[in-house]
Amino acid sequence: MLTSRRFLPSISHLAAFEAVARTGSVTAAARELDLTQSAVSRQVSALEEQLGVELFLRERQTMRLTLAGDGYAREIREALRRISSASLNLRANPHGGTLNLAILPTFGTRWLAPRLGRFLAANPGVTINLVTRLSPFDFRLDSIDAAIHFGHPHWPGAELALLMSERTVPACSPDFLQRYAIKAPEDLLAVPLLHLTTRPDAWEQWFAGNGVSFENVHGMLFDQFATAAQAAIAGLGIALLPTFLMQEEIRRGDLVAAVDREMESRERYYLAFPPEPRRLCATCRLSRLDRRGSGRQPGCVTNGLHRHGAFDHYAPQTTLQEISMKPIFVQLQCAPGKTYDVADAIYQTELVSELYSTSGDYDLLLKVYIEEGQDIGKFINDNIANIPGIVRSLTTLTFKAF
């Protein structure tokens, strides 16, 4: 049922209200909207009359929001922003297929952007809009369809698909390395260290992993890897940088390893998206970029995109003679905490056509194809159960042919 007309004010009334609320002046709002002052005043008054609520306190030449008006202004401002964004997206891609993706700045520019050309060429009709977000947000309150997340696999109200891990290295300029004559990990305690605000304990983890005792680790703070890397190149200190993001600087010799002690980060990169993705196909294909380049090849790991009911249990050595290269869905139940390990191991193979999670916290669903007359039980045992990294992570194995 449609909302009552009383609670659906016109865009012109809302735009006038938002402009006055933001500028605190009818004159400034009129100038911004290219309207007369009286027109703006009439629209604001009409909105108040329609809602039956006083939104402003009139004081001489100024308009001050009431308590109710202040809260209403924040919500209307966001609603107008979303309407504007939706309209721009529609104009950019009138046939649909737009995906709004939130990215981490350096990851987006150094790793994702160079791969998007191949992705878009292989997926015609998909338009990707990129915005920068540094921390998790509520998908229900935003127009973002998916986001790149670095950290542990936790994002309230979102599903996560594993993308990749990373290795970091303490990097500095060649002149800095020569000036301080660094030979061992403990030598780094005596030189300037550069920190990332989003990874405040990165250096502590690195020292602990290399068996170096320390009390406190101090240094300059940066909010992005790109600026931290430039500071390291300028000789301001040593930055702990992901090797895959700094390949060009390392290749040119702008950055060198202060000590040859790479370390794998505890956190991982994930693709985060709402439980009911607004654009399933594009989100699904995007999650394959790290493994396959264009995103069209098999091997997608996504949570919640396909959900199946109960699975029948087939005894080993079951043969379905009628199947001729038809799909077989195989359900793997992983040990707690091993879901992403199993998914990553399967990701490395060409065997699986598609890979999903099911309704359980630790379940994965594989879609594979077998030839006519092939023994299903033997196929599972030979090709799936023995994939390196899976055996120790499984608790049960069930499958059903469709």
Textual characterization of the structure:
This protein is an alpha/beta fold and 402 residues long. The protein contains 13 helices and 18 strands. The protein has helices at residues 11-23, 26-33, 37-51, 67-92, 105-122, 174-180, 202-209, 225-233, 247-252, 280-286, 289-292, 339-347, 376-383, and strands at 56-59, 62-65, 98-103, 127-132, 146-151, 159-164, 167-172, 193-196, 219-222, 238-242, 256-257, 263-264, 268-273, 301-302, 326-334, 354-357, 363-370, 394-401. Strands 7, 8, 9, 10, 11 and 12 form a six-stranded mixed sheet that branches. A five-stranded mixed sheet has the order 4-3-5-13-6. The chain has a five-stranded mixed sheet with strand order 14-16-17-15-18. α1 (11-23) crosses α2 and α2 (26-33) packs across α3. The model is unreliable at 277-282 and 291-324 (pLDDT under 50).
